[in-house]
Specification:
The chain contains ten helices and eight strands. By secondary structure, it is α+β, with helices and mostly antiparallel strands. The chain is globular and about 60 Å long.
Length: 255
């Protein structure tokens, strides 16, 4: 739910309503400041500072490297992903994931962006598959298909700041490690609406991914396909991208 934009509501809201409005704002823009709370939620600046301080004390928000900005803490991220995985509301999504695997005959997974990494959240596997993308695994953004999509969804300013953290670790001889080489791939993923990575995170593993968007069109997760390069090619995975996109739209409507 989008934070309510009526300043009168926020002025008269209870403390717990204000807390949830701030957390909803974090979910929308990632990093927030007291000024963001004042401008978007219409709260007085002293109230905005008190809310940020209290949420930091509760370990729900943490100070970011950017001056005056706060982001979600590891505790908040863990809480949100745990609720996503255990809530009965997830069952329809699991059903769609299984249906996709039955339709394509391939292994599929859902990934989240957690603490600056790709978090492989759930998957379905072919009977003959051997994968390293087990649920709970976290992998870097620069060498994964889902990571490319999360990077592509960033604002240009945020993306440029992240690119300044390179070069990054090489997991195989095919891993792209430099900002100069990665940036065109991110732009390609943004333009095409999907990403395919061949043997960059794990040797002989091809992974394709499409974004999952919530009703506000924000990328909140990715839907992926993973297969051994000995059995499947990049071209074969590319042909399945439209089918994955159709299913990602259905998943997005449930969020």
């Amino acid at each position: 739910m989008r934070p309510r934009s009526n300043p009168t509501h926020h002025t008269n809201a209870s403390p717990i309503e204000r807390v949830f409005d701030v957390l909803e704002l974090v979910s929308q823009i990632g990093l927030i400041s007291a000024t963001d709370i004042v401008n978007v939620l219409g709260l007085p600046r002293p109230t905005a500072h008190r809310l940020l301080t209290k949420l930091e004390q509760l370990d729900m928000l943490q100070i970011s490297p950017f001056k005056g900005k706060f982001g979600p803490s590891n505790r908040l991220i863990t809480l949100s992903t745990s609720m996503f995985s255990t809530n009965a509301a997830y069952l329809p999504i699991k059903t769609l994931l299984l249906a996709l695997s039955q339709k394509t005959g391939e292994s599929h997974h859902i990934s989240l962006l957690t603490d600056g990494q790709v978090h492989f959240f759930d998957h379905t596997e072919r009977a003959d598959a051997r994968t390293v993308l087990n649920p709970g695994l976290k992998a870097p953004l620069h060498c994964t298909a889902s990571g490319r999509l999360f990077l592509a969804a960033m604002t240009d300013d945020a993306l440029q700041r992240l690119l300044m953290t390179g070069p990054w670790e090489a997991f195989t001889s095919h891993t792209i490690t430099t900002p100069e080489a990665l940036y065109p791939r991110i732009l390609e993923a943004r333009r095409q609406g999907h990403a395919i990575v061949d043997s960059e995170y794990a040797q002989d593993l091809i992974v394709g991914a499409v974004p999952i968007r919530n009703p506000r069109q924000k990328v909140v997760a990715t839907l992926g396909l993973h297969a051994s390069s000995a059995r499947c090619s990049v071209a074969q995975i590319a042909k399945l991208i439209p089918t994955m996109q159709n299913q990602s739209l259905r998943i997005g409507r449930l969020l």
